[in-house]
Amino acid sequence: MKLPSDQRKTRPIAGVLFKLPLMIDCETFEGFITEYLDGVMPMRRHFVFTMHLRLCPECRAYLKQYEKTIAMTRSQSEIGYSEMGMGPVPDDLVNAVLAAQNVAVKK
Ligand SMILES: [Zn+2]
Question: Is residue 90 part of a domain?
Answer without folding.
Answer: yes
